[in-house]
Amino acid sequence: MKSKEKRKLRLTRRDFLKLIGRIGAFGLATGLGGWTYATKIEPSQLDLVKLPLFLPRLAPVFDGLRVAIISDIHLGGWMTRERLIPVIDMILEQSPDIILITGDFMYGHGWSDETQIHADDLAAELLRLSEKITTLAVMGNHDYWTSAPDVRRALKKANVIELSNTFYSMTRGTEQLHFCSVDDIWEEQDDLDSLLMQLPAEEAAILMAHEPDFADISAATRRFDLQISGHTHGGQVVFPDQPPPVLPYLGQKYPSGLYEVEKMWQYTNRGVGMGRISVRFNCPPEITILTLKTTL
Known about the structure:
alpha/beta, Purple Acid Phosphatase, chain A, domain 2, six-stranded mixed beta sheet, 9 helices, 32% helix, globular
């Protein structure tokens, strides 16, 4: 499918109205307090998810390695620098060994003087992470819809290592753990074949891919132990015992949390920002701390 065709698969007016209708019904059912909770309270209630994860190819020297994950900051929309500060603070309080950010740093379409101000704020806050902890990132679809070169300049200013169809190796003694990436799939910037040609054939490998449904492709290679993604925001609105009413293209199958895809783990982070609709219900923003284990 060509990019022009895929762009039609963004949140449609029909989907927007459907979600607004369901949120409105929720608001009527619960009263003004419920609506206030979904628009004013839950979007700022950071959920710290801690999860041990067994990787069979992980070298013993990396047992207990703590990986912090955030995604979908979307600075310039609901997310402001003031709202990003507690996100950064919480990550630093956890003292992880490495930080992974799985795309969609900016909000909107196109670049402007105002967007540049938001990008400068983003760089200043991410620098607080990278000054203390190695911070890796991969691009998302919104980073291309705003301006990929400008987003990349902001990441470089923040000393964040942006991976594009390549990998970064953590070395302890003679052992390595590979953190890999494919560039954005929606915008057809991914090149898995190029990554696999570069990547050593042995040792544990973790793949960063913004869109989670890519897990079907990456798992089939049998080379990756874990794929980490964002993109879906978890659906933002999740009603009890129902799937999220609206999910994005390439975020339909693995919208939130941990999945096993063939013999690979897939983890989808719910993100810390929001998209076009600034509402969260039963789907709070998430910071994830994965503790990698060599034994069950």
